[in-house]
């Protein structure tokens, strides 16, 4: 009798089952667009790059299977190797510079905003506003600002008596990459600022006030309390900065061109991949095989380093009790 009673479902039980089924269908409906976009624009291109990298290509015509031949050409062929090494170290310079200037400035701004000065809401909007602007627009706008003849930067320098500093910023190998890094830092500094600010607000105010009552200076509070407890935010920013630095393409392409002008001083791995796969003045005809092999190597490097850095930085995080 007890078993018969358990096997009989009441209308309420049927309604609960239907509600759960509808909830699953609704969640699947909401997730489908995102999954379709990921499959179409992320996973399928990744699979295609791996597939293309193991074949020889003559323009758009696929040739015979050559295994790791394209990878050997990218890594060990002197004609390609010198461009790869130069672009790689340029990306390293970008990563280090953005970590120091962009994220260092973001930390200072976050500490400033955390004290809630007068008008701090306006400052938050002002710092974050460039982030939402198009990178293409920013690249073209700053290219005009840095024009050596009528650009805003050189005009201001001449007007304040610093005409000797008015140089062709994007035309000299010594200044081109630095100028682009500063433009990128201006564009993105608002994002790490808000991430750091959110991490600071997560720290209990009682902890900071207690340190002040014990006579700790603001520097000691920032070094011994705020910085260690901001570790999760630091992990996020470091990893995202690394990924962005080694995927850097828009600003160098718009402001320096596909060849990494001048004299390949602004050449990046993204630019090298593009002109290898689709052709350019220096690279000649397109080579899907070699370009795909380069893209796969870039992905492996970024994925490996990001995974190791994430695990290492996460292990050093301090959790709030």
**Count of distinct strands:** 2
Distance between the termini: 52 Å
Corresponding CATH superfamily of the largest domain? MetI-like
* Strand portion: under 5%
Q: Please work out how many helical segments DSSP would assign.
A: 15
Q: Per CATH, which architecture of the largest domain?
A: Orthogonal Bundle
- Overall mean pLDDT score? 87
User: What gross morphology would you assign?
Assistant: globular
Largest sheet: 2 strands, antiparallel
User: What is the CATH level 1 assignment of the largest domain?
Assistant: Mainly Alpha
Assign the CATH topology of the largest domain: MetI-like fold
Order of strands in the sheet with the most strands? 1-2
Helical amount among residues, as a percent range?
A: over 70%
Structural class label = mainly alpha
Task: Write down the secondary-structure element order.
Answer: HHEEHHHHHHHHHHHHH
Radius of gyration from CA coordinates: 26 Å
Low-confidence stretches: none
Q: Tell me the domain tally.
A: 2
What order do the helices and strands come in, and which of them pair?
Elements lengths: L1 H6 L3 H43 L1 E4 L2 E5 L3 H8 L1 H37 L5 H9 L6 H11 L6 H8 L16 H13 L1 H13 L2 H9 L4 H12 L1 H16 L3 H7 L12 H10 L9 H28 L6
Antiparallel strand pairs: 1-2
Helix pairs in contact: 2-15, 3-4, 3-15, 4-8, 4-9, 4-12, 5-9, 6-13, 8-13, 9-12, 10-11, 12-15, 14-15
Task: Describe this structure in a few short sentences.
This protein is 72% helix and 3% strand.
């Amino acid at each position: 009798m007890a078993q018969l009673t358990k096997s009989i479902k009441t209308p309420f039980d049927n309604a609960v089952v239907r509600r759960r089924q509808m909830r699953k269908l609704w969640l699947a409906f909401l997730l489908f667009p995102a999954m379709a976009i990921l499959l179409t624009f992320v996973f399928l291109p990744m699979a295609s790059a791996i597939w293309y990298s193991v074949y020889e290509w003559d323009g758009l015509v696929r040739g015979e299977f050559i295994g790791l031949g394209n990878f050997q050409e990218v890594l060990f062929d002197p004609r390609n190797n010198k461009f790869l090494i130069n672009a790689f170290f340029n990306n390293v310079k970008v990563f280090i510079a953005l970590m120091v200037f962009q994220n260092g400035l973001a930390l200072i701004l976050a500490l400033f905003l955390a004290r809630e000065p007068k008008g701090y809401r306006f400052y938050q909007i002002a710092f974050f506003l460039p982030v939402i602007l198009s990178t293409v627009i920013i690249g073209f706008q700053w290219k005009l600002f840095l024009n050596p003849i009528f650009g805003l930067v050189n005009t201001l320098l001449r007007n304040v008596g610093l005409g000797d500093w008015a140089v062709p910023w994007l035309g000299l190998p010594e200044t081109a990459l630095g100028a682009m890094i500063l433009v990128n830092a201006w564009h993105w500094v608002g994002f790490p600022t808000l991430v750091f600010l959110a991490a600071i607000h997560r720290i209990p105010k009682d902890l900071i006030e207690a340190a002040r009552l014990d006579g700790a200076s603001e520097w000691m509070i920032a070094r011994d309390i705020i910085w260690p407890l901001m570790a999760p935010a630091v992990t996020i920013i470091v990893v995202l900065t690394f990924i962005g630095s080694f995927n850097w393409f828009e600003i160098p392409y718009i402001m320096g061109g596909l060849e990494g002008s001048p004299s390949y001083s602004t050449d990046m791995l993204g630019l090298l991949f593009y002109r290898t796969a689709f052709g350019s003045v220096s690279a000649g005809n397109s080579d899907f095989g070699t370009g795909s092999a380069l893209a796969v190597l870039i992905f492996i490097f970024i994925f490996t380093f990001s995974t190791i850095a994430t695990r290492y930085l996460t292990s050093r995080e301090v959790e709030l009790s």
